[in-house]
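Bench log. Compound arrived from synthesis this morning; before running ITC I wanted a structural hypothesis for how 2-acetamido-2-deoxy-beta-D-glucopyranose sits in the protein. Inputs:
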Amino acid sequence: MSLNKTLLLQQLLLGFVILAAIFIAAAEPNSSCVTTCGSLYIPYPFGTSHGCYLDPSFLITCNSSSGTPTPFLNKTEVRNISLDGELRVSAPVARDCPYESGYNPNNSITVLHRQRFPISSKKNKFTIIGCDTIGVIESISISENNYTSGCVSLCDSVDSVVNGTCSGAGCCQTSIPQGLNHFAAALTSLYNYSKVFNFNPCGFGFVVEEEAYNFSSLDLRKLQGQDVVPLVLDWAVGNQTCEDAKKNTTGYACKAANSECQNSINGPGYRCHCSSGYEGNPYLSNGCQDIDECKTSNPCVEKACINHVGYFDCSCPKGYEGDGRRDGTRCSPKPSNSRTIIITLGITISLLALLLGGSSLLLGLKRRKLVRLKEKFFQQNGGLMLQRQISNRGRSMETTKIFSADELKKATNNYDESKVLGKGGYGTVYKGLLPNNKVVAIKKSKICDQNQIEQFINEVIVLTQVNHRNVVKLLGCCLETEVPLLVYEFITNGTLSDHIHDESRASLLSLEKRMKIAVETAKALAYLHAEISMPIIHRDVKSTNILLDDNHTAKVADFGASRLVALDQTQITTLVQGTLGYLDPEYFHTSQLTEKSDVYSFGVVLAELLTGEKAISYFRPENYKNLAMYFVSAVKEDRLIQILEDHIVNDSNIEVLKEVASFATRCLRVRGEDRPSMTEVAMELKGLRTTMEKHPWGKDNQNEEEMVYLLSTPTYSFRIDMGMGSTNATIGQDSISQNLPLKPLDDGR
Ligand SMILES: *[C@@H]1O[C@H](CO)[C@@H](O)[C@H](O)[C@H]1NC(C)=O
Ligand SMILES: *[C@@H]1O[C@H](CO)[C@@H](O)[C@H](O)[C@H]1NC(C)=O
Ligand SMILES: *[C@@H]1O[C@H](CO)[C@@H](O)[C@H](O)[C@H]1NC(C)=O
Ligand SMILES: *[C@@H]1O[C@H](CO)[C@@H](O)[C@H](O)[C@H]1NC(C)=O
Ligand SMILES: *[C@@H]1O[C@H](CO)[C@@H](O)[C@H](O)[C@H]1NC(C)=O
Ligand SMILES: *[C@@H]1O[C@H](CO)[C@@H](O)[C@H](O)[C@H]1NC(C)=O
Ligand SMILES: *[C@@H]1O[C@H](CO)[C@@H](O)[C@H](O)[C@H]1NC(C)=O
Ligand SMILES: *[C@@H]1O[C@H](CO)[C@@H](O)[C@H](O)[C@H]1NC(C)=O
Ligand SMILES: *[C@@H]1O[C@H](CO)[C@@H](O)[C@H](O)[C@H]1NC(C)=O
Ligand SMILES: *[C@@H]1O[C@H](CO)[C@@H](O)[C@H](O)[C@H]1NC(C)=O
Ligand SMILES: *[C@@H]1O[C@H](CO)[C@@H](O)[C@H](O)[C@H]1NC(C)=O
């Protein structure tokens, strides 16, 4: 039995070895492969017969019919193959020689047929030779981008041309684009060479390896007999990227250990090369061999050179230090005796003195430049506009501090990644520590176009007007940096959205806390709409713009999109701005902005507070309009219990929850005028909350919050138009702004 088993095993092993041998034979060339054609060496992946090349696009045919063996790659003559991914072929020359006997105008057009590998845009140039010559190059195809270019070369006499330069006199050149696989070149002339034929009877046009062609005035006659020129193609393996190719180890062409893969920069596919310290053919499994640097070059200062696989070591004689490499720190005597120390010290001190002198000079220059830059940014960032606002208004701006760029840089540890609190379409928010140990949030906007500066100034003005415990406090701003920075009080506990949509936090967010947040948000918005001299429409109410502190006190944030409304204005036409999912459909269709748009957005937040996790899928961009619809229809169809966040519902509170939900649907009514005002919302929710607390389940003790607003600014009138020229529309949780006018999709009225 056991003998049988061993035999079986041996047979299996043998089978495997044979299989492996066949597999390797199929994948790589064997000794019977012909690797030369004439004087050309043909390295794998190229090959001359089946089994010797990687795939048919690397087949080189050797044609000996003309006497000397000539290699061809699909009908194009090959001159040289380099493993760096370059392939030199012979390209045709267009010639226009009207005074030649047997003149054939068709010769003024030449074609390089479609190549498997693209023409190197880095190495080649389209070149025209002649003193009455216009050349055009075209690459026309149905599927790819068409390309047409050309140049003109004119001159009066042979004396006006300069050997070696192609700047339009006798010779002109133009570059070619990436990804070009074929071309047609055509020549024509202005005067049929009648004025120049005694020294330039012909014109020539070709694409040539730039380094391999030097223009000479002798070329003006017959191009010194050349009818083909060298052209470089960029070859690569396959049509995948390295990442994709590596997934299939059998198909992956970088077979050698110590080889690396590199995506082709011109066209699809990838190339292989040996890692540093190795050389050879990376496409063969044993192709990359260690370079014995000690033998091939002389890399060490001293004779002591030790080769290792992949690298080498040099050493320095006793009493010397350094890496011993010619291209490194070489060998220098160790500071040993007192005399050298004194000398070195002397040199060091004088150098130091020099350096210090120099650098302080440089520093002075740099500082002056910095100051100028800061002034520029200050103006560019609306500093003047803000200063005007400040002087117009006097004391209301007093609480807003203008921070210096250095202060904020220090506070954020030079905008360290670890200080990032959040990122969004607007930019980045950093946590900062001011010298007085006050923790702040610093908003750095992303791009700095004029539109955003206006948003920025807008936010500054809006927030300095407002002082309410449920509105995030702006402490100051900085205008000296390229992008303006805003400094806020730091709200410790993240956004409402984080709390609703994070499983562990959501379970801690009781109904009482949710109601507290809803009431506080409503109060803040009611205050903005109705209780300050110049009402403010927030325009971007959403759960990511409501921040919470440790006591779950709500703070409305992000006034970048807000609008100040003059008292006599009831409706404003604006660019639609807001966030899909929260955006009032009426406003979206009509672009008529009223306070009721905030009411709608607040209704969505309220629905979100009640449904929690169950609503998350309705905030995906593809469902953006659905939360409100979904919520409203569930309430109508009496399915509320199915969509409420599970842990907030119990038998005793379901009735009052139904009331809250039904009130939320009033906020979500299609017609703005049917929605309650924010003041009504705040009052109603406060009432409902009190009802809840009268019952035993409402045990959260709430310290009744009071609105604190100190500013009653005198009348002034100004208006900042927002969103001008803005065309970006990000969909999802980010804010959107759209160009108007938007046509009503359906008449909401
Ligand atoms: C090399 O491979 C070719 C084709 O795969 C095969 O015909 C030939 O016999 C092989 N020669 C050797 C020496 O293995
Ligand atoms: C050779 O070139 C022709 C067009 O000139 C093309 O149709 C054919 O696919 C090419 N063959 C290979 C193996 O690239
Ligand atoms: C070899 O080249 C000649 C012309 O140079 C051509 O007629 C012949 O068809 C070619 N043979 C092969 C096998 O490509
Ligand atoms: C041809 O290629 C080899 C390496 O493949 C290289 O050493 C040689 O310099 C190349 N010749 C020309 C003319 O580029
Ligand atoms: C240019 O000159 C040649 C030879 O004299 C003549 O055949 C040809 O028609 C001329 N072409 C033009 C456009 O005049
Ligand atoms: C030039 O080419 C066109 C079409 O390609 C052909 O009709 C014409 O006969 C050719 N002329 C000469 C002189 O070969
Ligand atoms: C290139 O031009 C040709 C003819 O002018 C046209 O038929 C073809 O659609 C163009 N290709 C592209 C990609 O535009
Ligand atoms: C072109 O000229 C430069 C110097 O002007 C020379 O180094 C280079 O070898 C020349 N190339 C050819 C192909 O003649
Ligand atoms: C350009 O170089 C050739 C020799 O290579 C010389 O005969 C000719 O006079 C030169 N032409 C000019 C304009 O310098
Ligand atoms: C990539 O190459 C494979 C085989 O050579 C071919 O089947 C496939 O269609 C090519 N894919 C693309 C996108 O060109
Ligand atoms: C992997 O590459 C080999 C050789 O190119 C091919 O035959 C095989 O189908 C590829 N496998 C997958 C999963 O793509």
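What the model suggests: The pocket of 2-acetamido-2-deoxy-beta-D-glucopyranose (ligand 11) is lined by residues 248, 250-251 (CB under 6 Å). The first helix runs from residue 2 to 27.
ITC booked for Thursday regardless.
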